[in-house]
């Protein structure tokens, strides 16, 4: 393996600093649409980082499920490690990487649970097997190496409708920083960073 010689030149695009969208969430939606057209992997997959009670960070992939006017929604198990981290420290970081566009978006924000009603509405529209998965998985808990989920699946399969468990639902992330990165030749990448200051989005360009 010759990892040190793995490198790629970025040359697909640039950020137009003469025509900046004053709303970074609208700009994110624009990039997201372009990613939907160009990427073939899960465009809505992002790395979510949280920090636990001992200040130790932890990252994992989750799926973005909604872009709203003021922020972003993902779903998880409220008893999971990430949810426990958020209970103690609501600061989270989200990272999207769209390699076919040579783009990265970094978001810092505050996460809070969405309403039971909103989580129910989303849960009802999930495929049945995902609903069953949410009911039977005690996410982030240790289980026996030979644990078999089939018995639990069979039990639930007798039910007509699967009810959302109370321990499952969404988080809404209100962003306070959003940075857009576009790869450029010679590692002179474009970086456009927005920060929410006194309720207004201020943007700045940063050196790569
Ligand atoms: C492509 C992909 C998508 C995922 N989507 C989710 C998701 O939307 N929600 C979720 O809770 N976990 C999702 N996971 C699993 C998480 O990465 C993680 O394993 C799990 O949530 C437990 O994390 P925690 O113990 O840090 O809370 C996904 C993993 C991958 C690789």
Low-pLDDT runs of 5+ residues are: none
Q: Classify the beta-strand content into a percent band.
A: 35-45%
Terminal CA distance reads: 28 Å
Please provide the ordered H/E string of secondary-structure elements: HEEEHEEHHHEEE
**What is the count of β-strands?**
8
Number of domains: 1
Task: State the helicity in percent bands.
Answer: 10-25%
CATH topology: Pnp Oxidase, Chain A
**What is the structural class?**
alpha+beta
Evaluate the radius of gyration. 20 Å
CATH class value: Mainly Beta
Search tags:
208 residues, alpha+beta, Pnp Oxidase, Chain A, 6-stranded antiparallel β-barrel
In short:
By secondary structure, the protein is of the alpha+beta class.
Describe this structure in words.
- Helices cover 24% and strands 36% of the residues.
- Strands 1-2-3-6-5-4 form a six-stranded antiparallel barrel.
- The protein has 208 residues and is α+β, with helices and mostly antiparallel strands.
- It has one domain: Pnp Oxidase, Chain A.
- The model has no long low-confidence stretch (mean pLDDT 96).
Secondary-structure blueprint:
Blueprint: H1 24-38, E1 45-51, E2 57-68, E3 71-77, H2 81-88, E4 91-98, E5 103-113, H3 116-124, H4 128-136, H5 150-157, E6 168-182, E7 190-197, E8 200-206
Antiparallel strand pairs: 1-2, 1-4, 2-3, 3-6, 4-5, 5-6, 6-7, 7-8
